[in-house]
Amino acid sequence: MRNHTPVTEFLLMGIPHTEGLENVLFVFFLAFYLLTLLGNLLILLAILTSSNLHTPMYFFLGNLSVFDVFFPSVSSPKMMSYLMGQSRTISYQGCASQLFFYHFLGCTECFLYTVMAYDRFAAICHPLRYTVIMNHRLCTIMTLGTWMGSCLHASVLTFLIFKLPYCGPNEVDHFFCDIPVVLPLACADTSLAQMVSFTNVGVVSLTCFLLILTSYTRIVISILKISSSEGRRRAFSTCSAHLTSILLFYGPVVLIYLRPASSPWLDSVVQVLNNIVTPSLNPLIYTLRNKDVKLALRNALIQGVSTLGA
After folding, report:
1. Residue 8: exposed, middle, or buried by beta-carbon count in 10 A (0-12, 13-18, 19+)?
2. Contact status, residue 242 vs residue 113, Cβ threshold 8 Å
3. Bond before 279 cis per omega within 30 degrees
4. Residue spans of beta strands (DSSP E) within the chain
5. What does the alpha-carbon distance between residue 69 and residue 137 come to, in Å, rounded to a whole number?
6. Which of 54, 139, 166, 195 shows a CA-CA span of 20 to 30 A to 11?
7. Which phi-psi region, left, alpha or beta, contains residue 17 (left: φ > 0; alpha: ψ -120 to 50)?
């Protein structure tokens, strides 16, 4: 057995083929990061201050906004730091933390979309029993289950990846630590970690997708039974924002984790869209066509301005 020096830090190489664009990328990341924080904090403000929004649907939307605040924070600050000329190195523990929180929050989003689909199913298919079905106790259990299940999922993946020995090279061909770019750096057999991570991500994503598909199949059948066109339009409009967010979420997951071949540049571009752009779009998706949220947000801002003026 040869002696190996364990890796104590990794070097983040950033987005491939973007040399000389550091300033442009910094402005891009900073703008979307600030937009994400502002948009999701405003949604949280509207939900917390308006009693009309204290319903299961907005309770889960508030959880999604919390996720959208934390998710881009996993990778954006470090990337913006080295785009400004700071060190590209990240400690071994920092790399493991990035991978854990990325998959913890990503799995949380997956579960949240599934829970939100069930909420829409209960509201449209069983409107008279909606408040009984989606009671406070069930919402609390589903939310706690979402976060705890995601923590277990991320813990298993992080343990499998970082129990392997890393003895060089230490260059991560990406702008943050994730399974497809960290695992090839291990100086041991990675077949078990590859199989389990692929299966784990695949099973979670596929199970959630099938549950969402089942809910929306039942929803579409119920909507088509509505006699008035106005009623059908209103029912579809309540689901359109959720469906748009689901498409934006599942597209990158399939492209990055569930395809056989890997392309570093394509993976980086897709990850930028998934990590930075999509969380900034969710507030727009959920507020542009939602009169209740817009009204609550307007009232909250007016009340805040009045308080400051007084």
Report:
1. exposed
2. yes
3. no
4. 9-12, 89-91, 171-172
5. 26
6. 195
7. left
This prediction's pTM: 0.85
Per-residue pLDDT in tens (0 to 9) along the chain, 310 residues:
445 678 888 999 888 777 788 888 889 889 989 999 988 888 888 888 888 888 888 898 888 888 888 988 998 888 888 888 888 899 999 999 999 999 999 889 889 989 988 998 898 888 889 989 999 999 999 999 999 999 999 999 999 999 999 987 888 888 889 888 899 899 888 888 888 888 888 788 888 888 988 988 888 888 888 777 777 777 777 677 777 777 777 776 666 655 555 566 666 777 777 788 888 887 877 776 677 777 877 887 777 677 666 5
Lookup: tokens for 300: 């909250």
Q: What letter represents residue 72's amino acid?
A: P
Q: Where are the alpha helices (DSSP H) in 163-190?
A: 179-182
Between CA 247 and CA 257, with CA 251 as vertex, the angle to 5 degrees is 145
Separation CA 268–CA 23 (nearest Å): 18
